[in-house]
Amino acid sequence: DTLGDGGRAILMSHLGRPDGKRNPKYTLEPVARRLSELIHKPVGFAPDCTGEQVKAMAAKMTDGECLLLENLRFHAEEEENDEGFARQLAALGDLYVNDAFGSAHRAHASTEGVTRFLQPAVAGYLMLKELRYLSRAVSNPVRPYVAILGGAKISGKIDVIRNLMNVVDTFLIGGGMMFTFFKAQGLEIGNSLIETDKVDLAGQLLQVARLRKVGLVLPADCTVAQRLENDAPHHTVSVNHILPGWMGVDIGPETVKLFDNALRAAKTVIWNGPMGVFEMPNFARGTRELASILARATNNGATTVVGGGGTAAAISSCGLEKAVSHVSTGGGASLEFLEGKVLPGVAALPAA
Question: How far apart are CA 201 and CA 205, in angstroms?
């Protein structure tokens, strides 16, 4: 506890995409007020993140005080990883702690540039937790190891599948991306989401899985709707009986059973991507039931890791974020880590 030990904490972060310009819609001032409530201490708020006024505010801090800087992305230099901007940030402190895993895949001034001018630079507790769970899932999993992949598109998961193909025992595929695999198998998919330019790739991935004896389980049934609206007419069909004019919006009950059976013996599970259009209550059942299955697997001793972004929002909406081993705070960062990429914000921390 930096503040409890008499430290002086200067916090910096970003919010939204203000495109390098000051925008009151994205001010962090409400964050300072809410943080003050959470830590039961006053939190100062700087009207900018660099400049003479901010330097003066930092210099006036006393032991145990906390200061939050204004949105870093009000300056284009943040995302440009500008050296001068990074130097100004570094000049405010004596040591640097990065606890923002969700931004670790970006080489920005506050994540990578600042470490060149401020040492020691170390990982925070949340960052260490993220790296511990994700590293275990990528390089040293307890088996059987199951990866569940969903979400809208296969294109965002190609490199994840390729990298994990060397590690996992079984893939479970759901979400909109399943229809590209179905198309590769020659099935009728109606008006379901399709990435036409990825159909051949999906077929190749199915073939590679067979050759490497990696299980790749596709849904047996799905919920189909006449249009993408919660109150649209919908029903469940076998994946072999999707009719023209209908679109797939969720996995079906037989698929839930199929996935449940595949997960019963699992010791390591990683899940990235919802199973359907979970934002619409009528199409959220598959995602909700899968979240319950993961909670049970965790209770039975499995290590379960849920990717950030939409998947984190999905499991949170089920109230089960505390029932799994770890919910990542980084959507893009967790995906890039699973792809085997080096995250600039992590690589910049010698002690990580």
Answer: 6
Rounded CA-CA distance 1/6 in Å is 9
- Residues 98, 111 contacting (CB under 8 angstroms): yes
**Phi and psi angles of residue 11, each rounded to the nearest 5 degrees, phi first:** -100, 140
**CB–CB of 32/44 below 8 Å?**
yes
Answer yes or no: are the C-beta atoms of 157 and 200 closer than 8 Å: no
**Ramachandran category for residue 20: left, alpha or beta (phi over 0 → left; psi -120 to 50 → alpha):** left
Each residue's pLDDT tens digit, 313-351: 889 988 999 999 999 988 888 888 888 888 999 999 975
Output the 3-class SS for 220-241: CEEEEECCCCCCCCEEEEEHHH
- The phi, psi pair for 13, rounded to 5°, reads -160, 180
The 10s digit of each residue's pLDDT in 176-187 is 999 999 999 999
Report helix, strand or coil for 304. strand
CA pseudo-torsion sign 99, 164, 142, 260: positive
- Catalogue the E-assigned strands of the chain: 9-11, 43-45, 66-68, 96-98, 121-123, 145-149, 170-173, 215-217, 221-225, 234-238, 247-251, 268-272, 303-306, 326-327
**pTM of the full predicted structure?**
0.89
Do the Cβ atoms of 83 and 93 come closer than 8 Å?
Answer: no
Residue pair 323/297 in contact (Cβ under 8 Å)? The answer is: no
